Every structure is written in C-alpha cells, then in structure tokens.
Amino acid sequence: MQLTIPSSLDQIIETVKDINLSSRQQQTIGLLTAATVITSYTFYRLFKGPRDNCPTVPYRNPFNGSSAEYRKDPSAFVKKWTEEYGPVYRVHLFGRVCICMHTIVSGRYVREIFMNSNFDFNAGIEKRFNMKSMADIRAHEVPASDTRVAVVQYLTPHLKYFTPRAVENLNIGLHDIVGDLQGKKELPHLYPLVQRMVSRASASVFVGTNLCQNSELVTSFQEITGDLGSYIYAENYWIEPFQALMNLKMWAIGKFSASTRKHRRVMLNAIVPEIKSRLENAKKPDWERPNDILQDLIENFKVPPGRDIATHITNQIIVLIFASIHTTSENGTIVLYRILNTPGLLEELYKEQQEVLTNAGLDPNGKSSEVFTFDIIKNMVKLDSVCRESMRLRNEFYELTHTNVGKNKVVLSNGTIIPPGGDVLINAWYNQQSNDWEEMKKDKSEDRTEFKPLRYVNTGYPSTKVSDDYLVFGEGKHACPGRWFAIQEIKTVISLLIRDYKLQPTSDIIFPTTVQTALPFGSVSIEK
Ligand code: HEM
C-alpha cells in the first residue's frame, strides 16, 4: 500500500469522505485510514515548517535531512536548488527540523535579514559552535555588544596609532617561523606563517607591547580557536539534530577539555600579573598609561558580581581573539595563495608598492615599521582589489546563520515566514559568485566566477565596504567592526612578504570546494 502524505486539510477531507462506513470492518478500516492520514499530515506539517508556500528541498533522512548531500558536494547542491526554487527556500540541514528548519535567503532578500534586529548572528552560530561555552565563559558576562564596543571605540579609531607596532610585530611573527633564513626554506602551507604574524601583531594591540613578547601567550592567541573548533568539526554528525546534547557537549569541552584548561591557564598566568602591576602603577604620579585594548578594558568595563577583574578581562580578550585571529589569518592566507597562483600578479603588486612609497617620498627599502604606515597601506589600491576579489571568491555556500530571536514571526516581503527561534542561512555563493544574478553584473558578458584581481580598482568598492554581493564581513549594523584592522593586517602581511622575500609555489595550489575548510593548499618556498 502506498501512503501519500497530504499537503493540506482539503486533501485529508477528500481522502476520508470517500470511505464507506456501512459495515463494522469498513468502519475500522475507515478509522485507521483517517488516523494514519491525520498523523501523517501532522508529521508533514511539523517537518515542513511554517505554512507559507516556501518550497522545501526534498529529503529522505528525517533526522539529518539534506546535510550529507550538501556536505558531499556543496557547490552542486546549492546551484541545483537555487536554480530550481529561486532566492528563498528551505533546506533540512544540520538537524534543524520543524519550525527551525533553515530558510535559505539569497539576492536582495538578504537585506531583510541583515537589517532586521530580530535576527541574531551569534544566536545562530552558537547552536553549532558556541565558542564562549567551549572556553568556559558565561555568555551574559561577555555579551557580543561589549566586544563590539571594544573594537568600535578603542581599536578602529586608533588604527593609525597602532600601525607601527603592528608592523613591527608582524615582522617578529614572520621571523618566528622562517628564522634568519640563509637559503631557501620550504613551507608546506602558508597558514601557520600568516597565523603567527597576525597573532603576534594582534597581541601587541590587544594586550600591549610587553605581553606580546610572551611567546607562549602568542601561541595561545594563535591556537585557541582551532583547538576548540577541532572538538566540534572532527565529530560525528549524528549529534547535530539533538541541540540539548550539542549544548552539553560544548559545555563539557569548556569545563573539562585539556585545550580549554591549557589556554586559560596560559592567558591567566600572563594577564593576572600584568593587570596587578598596571593597577598598582596607576597610583604612582609618574605613571605612563599603557595604550592598548587591555588598558581600555580595565578602565571601561564593569566586572560582573562574583568575578575577579583578571578573569573577566581574560574572558573579554578570549572573545576578541575568537572574532579576529583565525578570520584574519584564514583570509590573509587565501589572498596570498591567489596572488601566488596568478602569473605576474606578485610583480604587479610589488611595482605598485614601490610607486606608492616613492610618490610619498619614502625609501622603498626603508624600515618596514616606518614606511608601511596606515596611509601608505591604504594607497595600495591594486592590493586592496586583490583582497576583495580573493575574499569574494572564497568557497562559501550557505553561511552566516541568523536566528530570529524576537517573540514574533518575521514575514519576508515574498511572504516567507521565519518563526521565533527559526534559522536563516545566507546563500553567500549566489550573492558573491553566481552568474545567474544578472542584477549584479555590470554587463551581460561579466563573469562573476572568474578571479579578476584588479576588478575593483577605482570602482569605489574597497575591500572593507560591505555590499549585497560581498558578504564576507556580514552587512547591516552588526557588520564586522574589526574589518579595517583585519584588512590593514592582511595588506601589511603581503606587503612585507613581497618586498623582503621571494615566494614561489613548489606544488600545485588547490582551492577547496568543500565546506570543511576555506583554506587553499600548496607548498611554497621562501628566500630573502
Ligand atoms: C578577515 C577577517 C574577518 C572576517 C572575515 C570577519 C567576519 C565577521 C562577520 C561575518 C561577522 C558577523 C557580521 C554580522 O553579524 O552580520 C563579524 C562580526 C564581528 N567581528 Fe569580524 N571578521 C574579521 C575580523 C575581525 C577582527 C580583526 C575583529 C576585531 C579586532 C573582529 C571583530 C568582530 C566583532 C566584535 C563582531 C561582532 C559584531 C556585532 O555583533 O555587532 N572581526 N565578523
């Protein structure tokens, strides 16, 4: 017997009204049929999500829906269903069913998510990757708004001031990996190099010029995100449909994992005495106030009741690290591989660098912390275009999950309903790369899938400018407030490397096509 799951109440009535109830046997069959149909309908509604005619990608596995198919070939999956269903549709992914099934939003509709304060990125991401919980930080003690304030008020306005120290420490980070470099050195992958440079420079700005010399601390800055992330990503996906179990697992990582304990110990060992000595020195008349985010946090943030100041500030710094170090290192690595994979590009960028420095009356071979100033880096427009183009083309598919944290349903302009607690995924592939989005093409012949390094030169679209077709930093009032610092670091890492070293790929460079990593692969030789 074939069971057809009805999609509306009318269909149920149609099915039941034809049952002839003249005999006892027929009555029993009739009742059973009606019960089966009603139960099926209830399940159908439950698994389908809200009644709004939004199409749902068909799936067989009721627990993990389309997750396996999506993970196997995300590009094919996203292309197929976006073509079939258009800009807004539902997919049963990562165990999210019923009213919480992910709604995929593409094209201009993404604005309706980014501009609506009911949608929260942190609430969405924390369902699968709750960094605070995994680092044993109580969420309410370090709200996202605190980290935003730290960046918006104390970091971004002072980027010019912080630049020389960041450049000096990028160089030290580089030296940590390549050493004095007498001959050629082979780097199996570029990520550890970029990550060390970014970690050292970020540490000099976040916790100051004294603590950034603590190599163990810089290593913790470098590794904490990847270490905690590996507990989640190296996992069996069976746990995904069970949110309570996921939460328990992330909480247990925070409380009991060796990585969390180690990184917290290293950070507290460094930060506790530093805060103590700063608080004592501040009482002295000849005190010279340290200028870094640590000092801003000490002076401006309230310590929650029952918490000591050092633990609270360490927690704030850890959250800042989660937001900044891996993201910047990963994207810096992506840009570098793109440059190395494009014949003639490295030489063109070197030429631009020499021209910008010479036009500013600076010695093109001068001390890096003196010549690579905030304005000089800003003037490297070709390099900036390469950054935007490389980041636009990173392998992104359904990204930037947002949850409706409001009490009411949100109705998109096409009638799609996102209920309270409902999740949205942004179709970054479509918005950033698809040629089907005609509106985003300058002319019909433009190919958005192509890597065109100088695409954005003189277009008014620097790599920090968010737009519907460039969502790497999000959009709207929660768009990444650290993007100016991130781009400054990425551009300086590249400027230092292409001026002072010779880099050459020693294997093919592979750009990933899976959801597991955005990092390209390939070995590179480096020499002076
Ligand atoms: C290339 C590197 C980076 C990328 C790709 C990146 C990306 C993002 C994205 C996608 C968001 C969410 C935006 C949204 O909700 O719409 C975000 C938020 C945030 N980012 Fe970044 N980020 C980067 C670097 C940084 C850096 C260096 C910092 C700090 C120094 C930082 C601090 C933050 C903070 C505090 C938020 C939360 C903003 C809020 O909730 O209002 N990010 N970032």
UniProtKB/TrEMBL annotation:
Pfam families: p450 (PF00067)
Record bears the keyword Cell cycle: no
UniProt keywords, alphabetically: Heme, Iron, Metal-binding, Monooxygenase, Oxidoreductase
Organism taxonomic ancestry: Eukaryota, Fungi, Fungi incertae sedis, Mucoromycota, Mucoromycotina
PROSITE patterns: CYTOCHROME_P450
PANTHER family with a match to the protein in the record: CYTOCHROME P450 (PTHR46206), P450, PUTATIVE (EUROFUNG)-RELATED (PTHR46206:SF7)
Family in the record: Belongs to the cytochrome P450 family.
Protein name: Cytochrome P450
Required co-factors: heme
InterPro entries to which the protein is assigned, alphabetical: Cyt_P450 (IPR001128), Cyt_P450_CS (IPR017972), Cyt_P450_E_grp-IV (IPR002403), Cyt_P450_sf (IPR036396)
Gene3D superfamilies, per the entry: Cytochrome P450
Keyword Iron assigned: yes
GO MF: heme binding; iron ion binding; monooxygenase activity; oxidoreductase activity, acting on paired donors, with incorporation or reduction of molecular oxygen
Domain of life: Eukaryota
Positions bound to heme: C480
